[in-house]
Write a structure and sequence with these properties.
signal; 6-stranded mixed sheet; 5-stranded mixed sheet; D-Maltodextrin-Binding Protein, domain 2; alpha/beta; Phosphate/phosphite/phosphonate ABC transporter substrate-binding protein; 11 strands; about 280 residues
């Protein structure tokens, strides 16, 4: 049992600190921390195994403690394949030369959630109360802050947490009045948890998780892109899409990432502010 615990601890360490895996000459898939490291490792295990066979080399899936750190590591070229929401995808494309490959068919939406028995029914009800987000550089948090400002509820204290399931748990224990998460992650909460929450606002569809290839792999871009599409047709790939309600892969629409420029600029501003 102790050996299993030590092994799991090592896996989480590698997931959060990708430099260790990179040093071993592996192909590193960096996934933005939209949920816990454990869940991310489980979710992307089928893709890791398939790409390992296709590339004929070791493949590791890693993440970061929060969206801010994920963006820093991606900009520093730590990932061979980065999977992150559209605003960071646009930043990586423009500022770090990553090559966009594809995204998911399912719409990506941000939502504002509150406890089901809460008296909060509209934005004005949140004045003077605490809200939760997934770090300053996450798309759901940035959308949530815009939503508050557009509804004239600005300057609320936003507490940042590590994962969407943490948002749900903290709401249910009374730590905040509302929280921002993605619709997909809300729908993936355990039924007994989801049943105690309700959505009071949701965004229009946004550019969701985008796959971007590091430019150092440009010579093999066609082969890697083809491997991703082939994975989507495997039994494991279809099971992954069904389990996570992603609908499969699709090509990016013309101008889709360009439409995220204002959010990408906010991430860049936040990272520069933190460096001071």
């Amino acid at each position: 049992m102790r050996s299993i615990i030590r092994l799991f601890g090592l896996v989480l360490f590698l997931a959060l600190f990708p430099g260790v895996a990179s040093a071993q000459g592996t192909f590193v898939i960096g996934v933005a921390p939209h949920t816990s490291a454990r869940v991310i490792l489980e979710m992307y295990q089928p893709l890791r195994l398939y790409l390992g066979k296709s590339l004929n080399m070791p493949v590791e899936v890693v993440t970061a403690p929060d969206f801010d750190e994920f963006a820093r590591r991606a900009l520093a070229q730590k990932y061979d394949l980065a999977i992150t929401t559209g605003h960071q995808a646009r930043l990586l494309q423009v500022d770090a030369g990553y090559l966009p490959q594809l995204t998911y068919k399912a719409d990506f939406k941000a939502v504002t959630i509150v406890p089901r028995n809460s008296d909060v029914t509209k934005p004005a009800d949140l004045k003077g109360r605490k809200v939760l987000g997934l770090s300053a550089a996450s798309l759901v948090t940035l959308w949530g802050e815009h939503w508050l400002a557009e509804n004239h509820v600005a300057s609320l204290p936003v507490k940042f947490v590590s994962a969407s399931d943490s948002v749900a748990q903290l709401l249910l224990t009374g730590e905040a009045a509302a929280g921002f998460t993605s619709l997909a992650n809300f729908q993936k909460l355990r039924p007994e948890v989801q049943g105690q929450l309700r959505i009071i606002a949701q965004s229009a569809p946004l550019a969701g998780r985008v796959y971007l290839l590091n430019q150092r792999w440009s010579a093999r871009e066609k082969a890697i892109n083809a491997a991703l599409w082939t994975f989507a047709e495997t039994a494991e790939g279809k099971r992954y899409f069904d389990t996570n309600k992603l609908g499969g892969y699709r090509k990016l629409h013309h101008g889709e990432l360009e439409g995220m420029d204002h959010y990408a600029a906010e991430v860049k501003r936040l990272l520069k502010k933190e460096e001071r």
